[in-house]
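Predicting holo structure, magnesium ion bound.
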Amino acid sequence: MSALNHFGLDIGTHSIKAVQLGGQTTRPVFIAAGQVPTPSQGLNSESEEDVAIIAQTIKKLHQEAHISTDKAVTALPESQIFTRVVELPNLSDKEVQSAIQWEAEQYVPIPMNEVQLDWQILSRPKQKGSDQKVEVLLVAAPKVLISKYLKIIKAAGLTAVSLETEVTAVVRSLVQRVEGNPTTMVISIGASTTDLSIVSANQISFTRSIATGGLALARGVAQELGFELDQATEYMKTYGLDATQLEGKVMQAIKPIFDVVVNEIRRALAFYSGKRPDVPVKRVVLTGGTAKLPGLVLYLAEALGLEVQIGNPWEGISLPSQVSQKLIQDSTSYAVSVGLALKVN
Ligand SMILES: Nc1ncnc2c1ncn2[C@@H]1O[C@H](COP(=O)(O)OP(=O)(O)OP(=O)(O)O)[C@@H](O)[C@H]1O
Ligand SMILES: [Mg+2]
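Done. Tokens:
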């Protein structure tokens, strides 16, 4: 049990979300939340001016949402970091520390002196001296990315207390708060990316990021039906994958693009079941703004042959009645920021 005294800040490519919880990790209490559209250049731009615009937007969100602490915990986008589960011989923690460096060099495509390495032991063999492997989750984040985030937070007049990955945050808010879960795949579909993770025995044991999200689907609708992007986005949100609407035209525009994501999901499931046949994935938890796409739950359940549900980050957190409707409506967008707000520092 730990007291919560910071707020979670999720800087997405479509919108920036902030959530502040109080009380204890085991019994969190809602304090404040809000979201604002991300300025058009987002975090892709390197210019000082664009960084200042993002910082101003965060500052405004912090004020308007009435967040009462300056301490921020934020998330690095999965698409820009390197996460991998590696298996090592049954080494001591100290030995793991040096083996990790070597492991990271094998798969991180940028020089080791340009990344910050972080690792966490997922499982150890029960018996000492056993020839079973130690499973380690390795995270390598480019130092330039970290300094960019720290710079923005500072420019917004806030203090960065820690940084973690989006998947770590989402898994905390949607899966880990309940004990005894079956092996679960979490699919987080934002505007630009879809992040996959598999959680077994309540620990992350696989992650992957795919460069397709709601924006690509809306572009597909715009192209197929000859709409402007804004109008196409509205059609996508209204009709989604529902084949009975508009003679299935919107669905037909979205399907080929979304099926690329579905294929990646299938590949991830196949990879995982080959590696861990003992703990098959039993269910899918969906999140991210695009998880609200009409017909998506059914479509995925049929395509994957698994139980699919939409995750609720507000589970167990009572919301004040004057804000609850909006927050529940946008719940899929808040999964990352709730997870960040729940982090124990
Ligand atoms: N009802 C809906 N149906 C389908 N898509 C929706 C709906 N509502 C919002 N979206 C889409 O959700 C996306 C925004 O979601 P979210 O807030 O999770 O994105 P983000 O975190 O900013 O993006 P990313 O994590 O990819 O950087 C947009 O593409 C938006 O069009
Ligand atoms: Mg996001």
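The domain at 82-141 is CATH 3.30.1490.300 (Dna Ligase; domain 1).
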